[in-house]
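Narrative of accomplishments. A recurring question from our advisory board has been how the design workflow behaves on a single, concrete structure rather than in aggregate. To address it, we present the structure tokens for one chain from the evaluation set, followed by the sequence designed for it. No filtering or post-editing was applied between the two.
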């Protein structure tokens, strides 16, 4: 598909892929990325990074999360919103990782989504950054920009994921995540998109 090829070539030129993860975590403790992504639901990455700096200092291991007073977790994650649910998800996920997976983070979709608070988006973030497995993460930027580019007509994140999997070469799945999120934050913003300077304007269905 020529249009897809043009879009990917433009994205590669504008945003050379460097494997950036927008959430901070210790690569020696990959479960931290899982927990940070759980917290990122309806919360900015910037705020999550502030929260996790304190959270992972207070609870440095899965064991410490598993036995913690839930109120102590709630107090730290409160700024992320929905803090009671999120604190509960973190603690139950820690317990499951310890008891079902021997403290190791699983890499397959079914096992990841069996953890509390983990949907396909969160699982795909982990699969991409921790295991380098080709995965498409559908967040609000990927939903919005992909729709504007005419790469999907769906509104459901799972359907959008499968649409993109069908038309994008697998070698671009991870980089597409990073590139579209960056473009969505810098140029194709939800409010007042900078269409005049957008180098994808010719491909954009919305601009037409």
């Amino acid at each position: 598909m020529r249009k897809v090829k043009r879009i990917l070539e433009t994205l590669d030129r504008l945003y050379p892929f460097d494997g950036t993860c927008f959430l901070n975590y210790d690569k020696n403790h990959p479960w931290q990325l899982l927990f940070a992504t759980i917290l990122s639901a309806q919360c900015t990455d910037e705020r999550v990074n502030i929260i996790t700096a304190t959270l992972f200092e207070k609870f440095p291991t899965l064991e410490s999360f598993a036995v913690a007073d839930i109120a102590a977790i709630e107090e730290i994650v409160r700024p992320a919103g929905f803090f009671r649910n999120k604190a509960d998800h973190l603690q139950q996920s820690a317990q499951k990782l310890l008891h079902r997976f021997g403290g190791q983070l699983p890499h397959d979709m079914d096992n990841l989504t069996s953890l509390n608070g983990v949907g396909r988006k969160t699982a795909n973030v982990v699969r991409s950054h921790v295991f380098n497995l080709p995965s498409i993460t559908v967040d609000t930027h990927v939903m919005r920009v992909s729709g504007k580019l005419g790469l999907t007509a769906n509104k459901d994140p799972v359907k959008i994921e499968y649409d993109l999997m069908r038309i994008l070469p697998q070698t671009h799945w991870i980089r597409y995540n990073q590139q579209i999120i960056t473009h969505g934050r810098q140029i194709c913003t939800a409010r007042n998109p900078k269409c005049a300077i957008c180098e994808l304007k010719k491909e954009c269905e919305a601009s037409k």
